[in-house]
Amino acid sequence: MDKVMLITGASRGIGAATALLAAERGYAVGINYRNQREAAEALVRQIESRGGRAVAIAADVASEEDVVRMFRELDQTLGRLDVLVNNAGILETQMRVENMDADRLQRVLAVNVTGSFLCAREALKRMSTRHGGKGGSIINVSSMASRLGSPNEYVDYAAAKGAIDSMTIGLAKEVAAEGVRVNAVRPGLINTEIHASGGEPGRVERLKSGVPLGRGGEPEEVARAILWLASDEASYTTGGFIDVSGGR
C-alpha cells in the first residue's frame, strides 16, 4: 500500500506543488481545499493521469466539524494517514496594526493557527502509538514572516506563523516518544497567488532585491523541503525548521 499524505490548502501554490511531488514519490494524496473545487479536482486528475492516487476533500480547516469529517473521509478513501502537511493559510489586505479590527484578527488566527491545531489533533489520533498508530510525520508550513514580523503589511499573519513555530517545537517534544515527528518549513518570498490576496500581486518582484539569492522562490523548492522532512532520510529530525528563503 502507498503511504498516505494529507495536504491542507492544496489546490494551488505550495500545497499543489507538494501534492504533485508527493504523488511522484509514491504517496497517495489527500488534497484539501475550501473554495477552489475545480483546481483541486484538476490536480487529482493530473496525479491520476500519471498513475498516482489522490482524492479532493472540501473542508474549512477553521471549522472543527469540517476537520473531523475531512479525516474520516480520508480514512475511508485512502486509508491510514502517514503524513500531515499543515499548509492551509490566509492573509488579508496589507495594513498597519492600528487599522486592524477584531474580525480580521479572528479570521487570520482561525485558519492559520486553530486550523493547524485541529488537523494535528486528528492526525495524532491516527498516527501516535498512544492511540494504536504506527507513527508518522507532521510538517507545518510556517513563514519567514514569523522571524521578520512583516511590519506595515501583515503583522497579524506573522504573529500567527510565530504561533505555528511554537506549536512545532512543543508538539515535537510532546509526541516524540509516540513515533511522530513534527517539523516545519519557513518559506520566504515565493511566487504564489497568496500575494494577490494581500493586495499586491507583484510583491515578490518589489522585494526580491533584498534576497541574497536575488530572486523569489518557486513552490516546488518548498515542496522538496517538505518531502525531505516527511521521508525516512529525516528520521532523526523533529522540532526542526528548514528556511526556504533565499538567505533572507
Automatic annotation (TrEMBL):
Transmembrane regions listed in the UniProt entry: none
Offer one Pfam family short name for this entry: adh_short_C2
Keyword annotations from UniProtKB, A to Z? Oxidoreductase
Coiled-coil region(s) at which residues? none
**InterPro entries (UniProt xref):** NAD(P)-bd_dom_sf, SDR_fam
Q: Which Gene3D superfamilies match?
A: NAD(P)-binding Rossmann-like Domain
Q: Which family does it belong to?
A: Belongs to the short-chain dehydrogenases/reductases (SDR) family.
Record protein name field: SDR family oxidoreductase
To which species is this protein native? Pseudomonas schmalbachii
What does the organism's lineage look like at the top?
A: Bacteria, Pseudomonadati, Pseudomonadota, Gammaproteobacteria, Pseudomonadales
